[in-house]
């Protein structure tokens, strides 16, 4: 039975989420409250919202959980060549938080194979924009010749980053933004990027599944750590290309 949350109700224990044999594995609760306060509480407990227009707010805590360890990020030979061009050519830029809401809207309109519509509803945009205004959510944006061509956004609590969505209007533009996030994570002690659900694309970049127990154990200590100062540009990719930041982080827990 999925719990219904009123405005001030706490989340149930994540172990109460529906199991793998259910029609909705990982579904924990439903409700209508999507305040920034509720969102922050959710992420601190390894829970995230995902629902469609017309549905109540559905809260999830899947087991296993897809994560990307910055030290595990895979860079193909062709992508490495592209990153070198990004660093070298002035047409390319990496911008932080240039327009958070615009990135969310771009992610909302990005085509998803096998999916109709988007979970990034106006209510979702407003709720995450509230976190952004509080300094708890960020967009990393790839620009080419003065045009935003890709990017991603997510939630940052302490030394934990929760990736939410990406978009690309130019080949590999979202992956360039992810590379910048990975480089920032490596140099600022962020040892895990939450990817929520397993996909073949994320697995090809080094993502893998870990148990919910291991994920939550990491979250508990990471969200209490002092947050980094969020500043970055494309120069941060240099350390990633050289590989001299990789030994500063630990591998993702099993």
From TrEMBL:
The keyword Transferase applies. The keyword Transport does not apply. It is found in: Cytoplasm. Pfam families: Leu_Phe_trans. Keywords: Acyltransferase, Cytoplasm, Transferase. InterPro entries: Acyl_CoA_acyltransferase, Leu/Phe-tRNA_Trfase, Leu/Phe-tRNA_Trfase_C, Leu/Phe-tRNA_Trfase_N. GO terms for cellular component: cytoplasm. It is an enzyme of class 2 (transferase). Gene3D superfamilies: Leucyl/phenylalanyl-tRNA-protein transferase, C-terminal domain (3.40.630.70), Leucyl/phenylalanyl-tRNA-protein transferase, N-terminal domain (3.30.70.3550). It catalyses: N-terminal L-arginyl-[protein] + L-leucyl-tRNA(Leu) = N-terminal L-leucyl-L-arginyl-[protein] + tRNA(Leu) + H(+); N-terminal L-lysyl-[protein] + L-leucyl-tRNA(Leu) = N-terminal L-leucyl-L-lysyl-[protein] + tRNA(Leu) + H(+); L-phenylalanyl-tRNA(Phe) + an N-terminal L-alpha-aminoacyl-[protein] = an N-terminal L-phenylalanyl-L-alpha-aminoacyl-[protein] + tRNA(Phe). Functions in the N-end rule pathway of protein degradation where it conjugates Leu, Phe and, less efficiently, Met from aminoacyl-tRNAs to the N-termini of proteins containing an N-terminal arginine or lysine. Belongs to the L/F-transferase family. This is Leucyl/phenylalanyl-tRNA--protein transferase. The gene is aat.
């Amino acid at each position: 039975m999925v719990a219904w949350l009123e405005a001030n109700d706490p989340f149930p224990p994540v172990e109460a989420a529906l199991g793998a044999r259910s029609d909705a594995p990982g579904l924990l609760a439903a409700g209508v409250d999507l305040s920034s306060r509720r969102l922050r509480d959710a992420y601190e407990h390894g829970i995230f919202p995902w629902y469609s227009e017309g549905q109540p707010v559905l809260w999830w805590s899947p087991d296993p959980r897809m994560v990307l360890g910055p030290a595990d990020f895979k860079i193909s030979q062709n992508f490495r060549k592209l990153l070198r061009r990004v660093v070298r050519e002035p047409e390319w830029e990496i911008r932080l938080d240039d327009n958070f809401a615009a990135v969310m809207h771009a992610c909302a309109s990005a085509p998803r194979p096998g999916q109709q519509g988007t979970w990034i509803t106006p209510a979702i945009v407003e709720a995450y924009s509230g976190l952004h205004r509080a300094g708890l959510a960020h967009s990393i944006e790839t620009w080419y010749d003065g045009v935003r061509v890709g990017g991603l956004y997510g939630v940052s609590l302490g030394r934990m980053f929760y990736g939410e969505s990406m978009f690309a209007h130019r080949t590999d533009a979202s992956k360039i933004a992810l590379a910048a996030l990975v480089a920032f994570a490596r140099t600022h002690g962020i040892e895990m990027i939450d990817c929520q659900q397993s996909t073949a694309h994320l697995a090809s970049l080094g993502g893998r599944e870990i148990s919910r127990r291991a994920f939550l154990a990491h979250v508990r200590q990471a969200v209490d750590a002092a947050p980094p100062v969020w500043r970055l540009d494309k120069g941060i990719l240099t350390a990633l290309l050289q590989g001299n930041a990789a030994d500063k982080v630990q591998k993702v827990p099993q």
